[in-house]
Each structure stands twice: as structure tokens, then as C-alpha cells.
Write a structure and sequence with these properties.
Elements (H helix, E strand, L loop, with lengths): L1 E5 L5 E5 L6 H7 L19 E4 L4 H4 L4 H7 L10 E3 L12 E4 L5
Parallel strand pairs: 1-5
Antiparallel strand pairs: 1-2, 3-4, 3-5
Length: about 100
């Protein structure tokens, strides 16, 4: 599946991602700045915070209970479209997904 990460400075990184991989791992593998994933995807840090593009929000879905709590700890702005990318799993239904990387603080 194809994913695009829009960067704060206006650039973007596009990559093909294997289905079943979480998008934090995909971002790290593709050197997406601002997506760190310190906890390795264990849902304990919020360093893989992204904003899901508005037209993708319904397909991606909202955060689970634990993710919602972790999103309260993001370093920057939290939006209704905020998600932890470690909790978004690459799937065919998300082909073409656009994620925005928050500005680093």
C-alpha cells in the first residue's frame, strides 16, 4: 500500500508499505523526521504522533482507550485527527493514506 507523510516544512515522503506493518515502523524505516517511536510501538510514549488527513479519518478510525490517554501526552498540539502511528496498521483499504507529521517542539 502507498502512504504519504506530509512534513511541517511543506515537503513529503511517500513510500510503499507492506500490509500488516504499523505506520510508525514504516515511518522509521523511511526516515520520516518527527516520527521517532521511542517505545518501539508498545503504546507507551506518543513519539509517533501524526495527524490523519481529514478525508481518511473515517477509514482509519479513532484511537482506542489507551491510545486516547497517550495522545493527551503529545508534546505539541492534539487535534481530533491525532493518532499514534504505531496503532495504524497498513491494510489495502488504506492505500493512498495521507498523514501529517506535527511540527517538532
Amino acid at each position: 500500500m502507498h502512504v504519504i507523510w506530509k512534513l511541517p516544512g511543506g515537503g513529503e515522503i511517500a513510500a510503499e508499505v507492506v500490509e500488516g506493518l504499523n505506520l510508525m515502523e514504516a515511518a522509521v524505516a523511511n526516515s520520516v523526521p518527527g516520527v521517532i517511536g521511542e517505545c518501539g510501538g508498545c503504546l507507551s510514549c506518543a513519539t509517533c504522533h501524526v495527524f490523519v488527513a481529514e478525508d481518511w479519518a473515517d477509514r482509519v478510525g479513532g484511537p482506542g482507550e489507551t491510545e486516547d490517554v497517550m495522545l493527551d501526552m503529545v508534546a505539541g498540539e492534539r487535534r481530533p485527527s491525532s493518532r499514534l502511528s504505531c496503532q495504524i496498521i497498513a491494510a489495502a483499504r488504506l492505500d493512498g493514506l495521507v498523514l501529517e507529521v506535527p511540527e517538532e517542539i
